[in-house]
Design brief:
43% of the residues lie in helices and 25% in strands. The chain contains six helices and five strands, in the order ααβαβααβββα. The two termini are 28 Å apart.
Length: 175
């Protein structure tokens, strides 16, 4: 085994231990992921209702999440079916449903499920949390958070890009 293949084997082993969601990656295939959505939790909905700009930001952030991860070649996103969307709408919120996320992942035939929460305390203070869990392993394999100062398209996209670059796709030794 040469040095390059030794390093690659070690990197795969670390990835499996750290994330627990890489069986597809071991076979050279991207991890199949279903993004279950982005939930905006507006702490002041009564005083400052969620705006159309914020709803558009949710969609843009979901698209950015998928495009950045797919561009890495390590992930392939699978669309959430209408049937699963109906179950999600009828059930508890993803992330608070005691494992429904994993059931949705099994129904979709993916290796992992992901979801994003943005908590809006005010137009100045927000928090973005990104979650990913392996479907066959009932624990979070990825959870990171970043505080956001400002409620703009730029602050949301920069925050997500920072999370993905510095935590999600960073080599294990940098995490």
């Amino acid at each position: 085994m040469n040095f390059k293949s030794s390093v690659l084997a070690f990197a795969y082993a670390v990835l499996v231990v750290v994330t627990g969601i890489v069986p597809a990656a071991l076979a050279g295939e991207p991890v199949k992921v279903a993004l279950l959505g982005l939930e905006l939790k507006n702490d002041n909905e009564g005083l400052d209702p969620t705006s159309d700009a914020e709803r558009a930001r949710q969609t843009k952030t979901e698209e950015l999440f998928k495009s950045l991860l797919e561009a890495s070649g390590r992930y392939k996103f699978v669309a959430v079916t209408d049937e699963v969307k109906k179950k999600m709408d009828a059930g508890q919120q993803v992330g608070t449903c005691a494992g429904c996320e994993l059931q949705y992942g099994k129904e979709l035939g993916v290796d992992a499920v992901a979801w994003i929460e943005v908590q809006k305390v005010s137009n100045l203070i927000l928090n973005m949390n990104v979650y990913m869990a392996g479907v066959s392993d009932p624990k979070y394999n990825y959870l990171h958070s970043v505080d956001i100062r400002g409620n703009t398209d730029e602050t949301w996209s920069r925050s997500l890009t920072y999370l993905i670059k510095n935590y999600f796709l960073a080599p294990a030794e940098q995490k």
